[in-house]
Amino acid sequence: MQYEFRLPDIGEGVAEGEVVRWFVHEGDTIREDAPLVSVLTDKANVEIPSPKTGKVLRIHAQEGEKVKVGASLVTLEVAGEASVSPRETAEVSVHPPPPSLPPKAPVNAPTPVVAPAGTAGSGRYLVAPYVRRLATERGIDLSTIAGSGPGGRILESDLTRGAVPPPPVAAPPPAATVAPSPIEKPSAAPPPMDEDIVERIPIRGIRRVIAEHMAESTHKAAHYTYVEEVDVSDLIQVRDRMAKHIEKKGTRLSYLPFIVKGVVAGLRSFPRMNARFDDERQELDIHKSYNIGIATAAPDGLLVPVVHHADRKSLADIAREIQELADKGREGKLTRAEMSGGTFTISSLGALGGVMATPILNYPEVAILGVHRIVRRPVYRTNGTIGPVDLMNLSLSLDHRVLDGIVGAQFLAVVKSYLEDPHQLFAELA
Fold first, then answer.
1. Which of 43, 50, 23, 394 is nearest to 229 (CA)?
2. 3-state secondary structure of 371
3. Strands 344-348 and 292-294
4. 361 near 343, Cβ under 8 Å?
5. pLDDT digit string (tens) for 306-318?
6. Cα(396)–Cα(410) distance, rounded to whole angstroms?
7. DSSP labels, 222-289
8. Cβ(38)–Cβ(45) under 8 Å?
């Protein structure tokens, strides 16, 4: 018998998911609990297993297509009754109502050639909503496309191969021409822009989520960036001494754990920075937990795993957790819980950090800190001498709707004081 499997509820507040990868094809046999499909929600990939053992009759959503919770994902044939071929299933579910009969052709007219469904020239064709939308956006007539998928289904790749050219139409009789004015010269038409495109890259999966999230942030929040210079000469010495002990246990100690601790100290002094803005209710939600997101580069784009309750953890604990989250992010194994609940974000490019930046808020958070590379420069000291100093810039972006510039400057002054005198971090723990 046929079993229709729908997208289950895969997390609190999740209304839809994007199909990232199918592990099966139509016609394949799959066992219960074997990987069926990977679905992306809120930047976290969820691997959904097959609910039953059976044959895959029809896949209802292509890779890159968004599916609502409760919508059909796949039709399986489970043991018990005769199977239905993928083509038969597709034909039944996608065909429009039969068209009205065409007028009778003259007796001497040539016999028309009827194209099968899914081929160019057909009045009906198999196509997913996602591909139909792409065709509409590109101005492509699907009736001129020869589908290469099962049962003649039109795939996204078929759109790039080009349409079957329509039969030639008889040219109308030439009309009387008027010579152009000697002042007005007919200009040559510009070449089509498509000729200059070397590759089309679909924006899907994590990249599409990032694009939507960044657009939402820049359209809703009023970004304001404040930059401060920090002398991290003492921090370098403290970090180098601690690294010898912590790295014996396999954990790399970077400067990020110290910056996390400095940020927590700043958030304690200015709680309105540790907040999320609820646009719908027009409320600023101030959090008591210090959950610090760490922007992490991954193969498909930037991820922001979260170090929860950073105020309760030691520098070594934070270093270990940052390393584990970064490894899981690169492997695509971060869970929804590890990506949720952030109250403040830190973005660092390490040695490639540049001089300054204007970080985009991790909406609906109201503040984000950009960390830049450390550079040694000669500095004029207050005692009248000139000497080498290790300097690092910090760029703080705020949501100016709810945070004034003075608050950002005061917050960053606290962070700076802790990084310039890192022994304060240990005094707090005592």
1. 394
2. strand
3. parallel
4. no
5. 999 999 999 999 9
6. 11
7. -EEEEEEEEE-HHHHHHHHHHHHHHGGGT----SHHHHHHHHHHHHHH-GGGSEEEETTTTEEEE-SS
8. yes
Q: Would you say how long the chain is, in residues?
A: 430
- pLDDT tens, 296-339? 888 778 889 999 999 999 999 999 999 999 999 888 888 888 98
Residue at token pair 């839809």: 16
Distance CA 411, CA 263 (A): 8
Instruction: State how far the Cα of 199 lies from the Cα of 211, in Å rounded to an integer.
Output: 19
Task: Tell me the C-alpha distance between 113 and 109, whole Å.
Answer: 12
Record the tokens describing residue 244, joined without a space: 């010898």
**Options 213, 223, 287, 400, the catalytic residue:** 400
Residue 325 CA to residue 329 CA, distance in Å, equals: 6
Catalytic, 400? Answer yes
What is the CA angle 66-69-72, rounded to 5?
Answer: 75
Cα 146 from Cα 162, distance rounded (Å)? 9
Q: Order of strands across the sheet with 44-49?
A: 44-49, 35-41, 16-22, 66-68
Q: How far is CA 378 from CA 161, 390, 392, 416, in A?
A: 60, 9, 13, 19
Residues 6 or more apart in contact with residue 271 via CB below 8 angstroms: 286
d(CA 53, CA 292): 43
The model's pLDDT over 166-216, given as tens digits with 9 standing for 90+, comes to 445 455 555 555 455 455 555 555 556 567 888 888 888 888 888 888 999
Helix axes 405-420, 256-269, angle to 10 degrees: 130
For residue 16, the Cα-to-chain-centroid distance in whole angstroms is: 14
The angle, 0 to 180 degrees and rounded to 10, between the axes of the packed helices 233-246 and 405-420 is 60
Q: pTM of the entire structure? A: 0.65
Distance CA 20, CA 73 (A): 12
Amino acid at 327: D
Annotate 145-204 with DSSP letters as a single string. Answer: ----SGGGPBPHHHHHH-PPPPPP-PPPPPPPP-PPPSS-PPPPPPPPGGGG--------
| Burial state string for 336-348 with b = 16 or more CB within 10 A and e = fewer than 16 | bebbbebbbbbbb
Q: Which helix (H) or strand (E) holds 407?
A: helix 405-420
Paired tokens of 368: 């984000």
